[in-house]
Structures are given as structure tokens and as C-alpha cells.
Amino acid sequence: MPVLRQIAQLGHPVLRENVRPVEDPSDPAVQALIDDMIATAADASGVGIAAPQVYLSLSLFIVASRPNPRYPEAPAMSPSAVINPEILWRSDDLVKGWEGCLSIPGLRGPVSRHRRIGVRYLDREGRLREEEHADFIARIFQHEFDHIQGVLFIDRVEDTRELATEKEYVRIVMGDQELGVRSK
Ligand code: ZN
After folding, report:
1. Is 70 exceeded by the pLDDT of residue 184?
2. How far is the CA of 164 from the centre of ligand 1 (A)?
3. What is the pLDDT of residue 176?
4. Nearest 5°: CA angle at 153, between 130 and 106?
5. Residue 59 contacts by C-beta under 8 Å, 6 or more apart in sequence?
6. Domains along the chain?
7. pLDDT band at residue 40, thresholds of 50, 70 and 90?
């Protein structure tokens, strides 16, 4: 049974440390960690989670896009583990979009990301994969890839005056009309 892991919060040094590669994806401890991270992200309505967020300095993250209360428009996919990733190329076009982070509760900010990226990584079976991602999945990948470089989305917000609390984010995105329905 997967175990929900504690999520490191902004200010904890583990979020800023260098990671080391995963040596053996088939290691039962790595397999259990992947299951725990998938369960932890789902429990917290996250669409991704990186190993440093569960206090482990490893080059590993989960991409788990699905519609949930924090990201109602997220595309549905089965959660996948991304091990020892590289970003091979990035498209020139940037898209600005709202991000949040399980390690920075209650805060949202607009971040520019490359619309398309080419990536290479090992999956949880240890198979080398090369893929191209676009739009929201590319955004998640870039956000999580940042985590394994010790970078957080707030570092990439161009103007801190654009940061918003979760409550104000809902108002900005949904508009005043729906506020009565969406907010508590
Ligand atoms: Zn994050």
C-alpha cells in the first residue's frame, strides 16, 4: 500500500539542493517511492511532484495531470514517473500560464514556459524514452524539472506584483460572476 509522504515547504533547504541520479529504477525502494509520490500528489490535488518535495535529493518526478479542484482544466493522463530526465530542446515560443506548487501552499503566479519541449528520461521500468510534450503537460514537465535543479516557480515569476493567493486566483481566473459558486 502506498504511503502519503510529508511535503517539504518553501524555506526547507531540501528544495534548493542538488539532486543525484537514480542508480537503479528497479530497486524496490525506488518503486515504492514512485507509488508513494503518485498517491501523495493525488491526495494533495497536485498534477506533479518531485523527489525533493518529499525530502529526497533524487532526479525523479511524477507527472500526473488530471482534472482536480486545483486544476479543473488539466488533461487526464495516467501518472508517469520521470527518472534522470534531460530536456533536449525547447521551442522558441513562450506561453504564460498560472502555476502553483504543493511546497508553496496558497500561492499562484503566472510563469512563462516553452510551449513545446523534447525530453529524454527513464520510465519506472528503466526504459529510455524520448518524447515531445506541449502546452499543459510541457508546463508540468518544466515545473518539475526545475524542482530537481532547486528552482521554484516563484523564482520565474517575472513580476512579484502578479502573485496571487488561491482565493484571488480563483477570482481572477473564474471572474467575479462565478466567485459565489467557486469560493468558500
Ligand atoms: Zn512544485
Report:
1. no
2. 16
3. 53
4. 125
5. 19, 20, 21, 22, 51, 83, 84, 85, 148
6. 13-92+115-151 (3.90.45.10)
7. very high
Global model pTM greater than 0.90: yes
Computed on alpha carbons and rounded to an integer, the radius of gyration of the chain in Å comes to: 16
Give CA–CA dist 149/130, Å, rounded: 20
Question: Per residue in 29-59, is it b (16+ CB within 10 Å) or e — as a string?
Answer: ebeebbbbbbbbbbeeebbbbbbbbbebebb
- The residues near 96 (Cβ < 8 Å, ≥ 6 apart) are 110, 111, 112
Distance from the CA of 103 to the center of ligand 1, in angstroms?
6
Find the 129 Cα to ligand 1 centroid distance in Å: 23
Q: What are phi and psi of 151, to 5 degrees?
A: -110, 135
Distance 142 CA to ligand 1 centre (A): 10
pLDDT tens across 57-97, in order? Answer: 999 999 998 888 777 778 888 999 999 999 999 999 999 99
Q: For 116-165, how does the pLDDT look when each residue is reduced to its tens digit (9 = 90+)? A: 999 999 999 999 999 999 999 999 999 999 999 999 999 999 999 999 99
CB 107 within 8 A of CB 99: no
Residues marked active site are found at 144
DSSP three-state, residue 100: strand
